[in-house]
Specification:
10-stranded antiparallel β-sheet; 5 helices; alpha+beta; Gp82; single chain
Amino acid sequence: MDERDAQFLVLPDPGNSCHFRRLPETPQGEIDEQFPFSARGRAMKLADARHSALYQSRTIAMQSDDTIDAALRADRAAAKIMAKDLQVHPGELVGVRLNLNVFKSRGVLVQTIHAGNRSDGYRNNRGFFNGSVLAYRKHVTLRGAFFNVSQSGRHKIASGLDSKHPMASVDGVLHEAEHPEFSGIEISFNPHRVHLFTDRDFRPIRYAEEATIYGHRIYVRGEIEYYTEGTAPQKIGDADSAVQFQPASGAVTSIAAGQQAAFDLASLLD
């Protein structure tokens, strides 16, 4: 399996009665100083993640730095990248996804950081998952995070036409966080089950003001935006998707325990 055969799992935030506000539209090509992470060409409908029933405070026992370093050095592709000693700095646009090679061979959870670019594509479902690999991290925190999935790539995997390949990432501005924050709404993505990143109610998330990525999960905070049926990328192919679009009212009900167990299992079986 190639080093780039890493996939990403994430979950967005639902809520009871979320309170939305809209960001002003920004003409294509102009820099939005007031709302640097807003979508170009249309207003964003934002909700505070703290108003969601899925928002939780949590602590996570992470794997040790020594364990991760040893696993990376034992992986030929990762060791080759690390030998280049490439630098990635806070404030850079990057794409992030779980490195499945290291996870499957060593059982170690490592994130691959891909180079971004200055175009607006990552705000419109054109992720950085094919960008050059810059570094590996135990955990990554992004500001202004967008959740991107190649629908053609997802279709090939979900329908069995192709094996795992780079086709999804969380993309945004790298934020240095020595002590990661895991509070928030949990997000995950399994291409065999859904065609977009979703929360535990299978609602598809598009954007989060802040996202911490660790292992198979992403934890989102601040203002978030869900896709609606009218704004979501068109699913390609006949493979099923459990995605549930948010009602226009914004009302949210929690999924049943049985559904939750099925969701957790499906995520881990990716």
